[in-house]
């Protein structure tokens, strides 16, 4: 009798394991697969899509949100959220422009220090005061945006970059590749090593997977949460700094809605909003996927901005639904 039950249970268990494995692959690499399909479709639909200038433009425009999305990935992996990154991005650019008066070092250090401190303050409230990340970072979004407007006289004063060396970072490059793209790739590489090759990275996944189990294991949960918000603040500040270098000015109105784009890219890339599962490679694919979609919409040329928003929103909703289904499949 027991042999019969084993024989009957075996194929079912194997089939379930295969389904779970397939669901995991689709969840982790789905964005890359869809990206490849869209690149093929774009190359067949638009004559200029495969041009070097178009690819360079996509890569350059993706570099800034990519750096922001790296920090967002760290936060979401712990089950948190950071809604302040768009405002911090704008602040980083404004401070970089003002700091350029003191040379390249001033343009780089001033925004990174200030934005890192903002991430530190938000992390302290989330990790040690036990406040909800949504509320803390929403307050950060409003407060930092208000600070940007105060510094720039209500947004009417756009500071210009005064240092030629700093400008060269954003506008120069290597073999037609902007330095901003190279820096973004380096940030992704460093972040990937941190998440996959260090104990801190393992702790981030563990905290996102189960905070109570992580506490029981003796992991420094509060310190892990604090660290990811510092990383997010630094990444948003760095992206804003590079954007100021690229545009030769610290525009106070940039970054509106950037937090939503970053969250979208992270989720599309396979990182679960509840935390514990995801990768920066997936996030990279998510950012590029959104950029390619936007590029293809621009190539059509006849769609209004409202239609573009609807297309992006519907696409994100479909991805979230698929992610939910795949996640449930893996838990069955």
Walk me through what this model shows.
It is a single chain. By secondary structure, this protein is mostly helical. It is 78% helix and 1% strand. It has 13 helices and two strands; from the N terminus they run H-H-H-H-H-H-E-E-H-H-H-H-H-H-H. Strands 1-2 form a two-stranded antiparallel ribbon. 44% of the residues are buried.
Helix content: over 70%
CATH 2nd-level architecture: Orthogonal Bundle
Number of structurally distinct domains: 1
Total number of strands: 2
Low-confidence stretches: 1-9
In percent terms, what proportion of residues is strand? under 5%
Q: Helix tally? A: 13
- Oligomeric nature of the chains: single chain
What does the largest sheet look like? 2 strands, antiparallel
Give, in order, the helices and strands.
HHHHHHEEHHHHHHH
CATH classification, class level:
Mainly Alpha
- Radius of gyration (Å): 21 Å
Structural class of the secondary elements? mainly alpha
Q: For the record, give the distance between the C-alpha atoms at the N and C termini, rounded to a whole number.
A: 26 Å
Shape: globular
Q: What's the CATH topology label?
A: ABC transporter involved in vitamin B12 uptake, BtuC
Mean pLDDT: 87
Q: Kindly report the spatial arrangement of strands forming the biggest sheet.
A: 1-2
């Amino acid at each position: 009798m027991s042999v019969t039950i084993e024989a009957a249970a075996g194929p079912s268990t194997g089939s379930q394991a295969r389904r779970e494995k397939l669901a995991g692959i689709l969840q982790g690499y789905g964005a890359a697969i869809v990206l490849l399909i869209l690149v093929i479709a774009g190359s067949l639909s638009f004559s200029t899509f495969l041009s070097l200038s178009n690819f360079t433009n996509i890569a350059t425009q993706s570099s800034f949100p990519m750096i922001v999305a790296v920090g967002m990935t760290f936060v979401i992996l712990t089950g948190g959220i950071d809604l302040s990154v768009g405002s911090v991005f704008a602040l980083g650019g404004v401070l970089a422009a003002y700091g350029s008066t003191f040379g390249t070092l001033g343009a780089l250090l001033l925004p990174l220090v200030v934005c890192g401190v903002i991430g530190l303050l938000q992390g302290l409230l989330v990790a040690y005061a036990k406040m909800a990340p949504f509320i803390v970072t929403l307050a950060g979004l409003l407060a930092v945006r208000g600070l940007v407007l105060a510094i720039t006289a209500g947004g009417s004063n756009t500071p210009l970059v005064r240092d030629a060396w700093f400008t060269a970072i954003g506008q120069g490059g290597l073999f037609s590749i902007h330095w901003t793209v190279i820096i973004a790739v380096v940030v992704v590489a460093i972040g990937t090593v941190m998440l996959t090759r260090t104990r801190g990275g393992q702790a981030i996944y563990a905290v996102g997977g189960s905070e109570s189990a992580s506490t029981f294991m003796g992991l420094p949960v509060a310190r892990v949460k604090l660290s990811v918000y510092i990383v997010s603040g630094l990444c948003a500040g760095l992206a804003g700094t590079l954007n100021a270098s690229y545009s030769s000015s610290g525009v106070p109105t940039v970054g509106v809605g950037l937090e939503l784009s970053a969250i979208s890219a992270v989720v599309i890339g396979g990182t679960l909003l509840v935390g514990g599962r995801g990768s920066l490679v997936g996030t990279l694919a998510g950012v590029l996927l959104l950029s390619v979609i936007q590029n293809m919409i621009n190539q059509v040329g006849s769609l209004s901005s409202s239609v573009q928003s609807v297309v992006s929103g519907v696409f994100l909703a479909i991805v979230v639904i698929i992610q939910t289904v795949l996640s449930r499949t893996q838990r069955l």
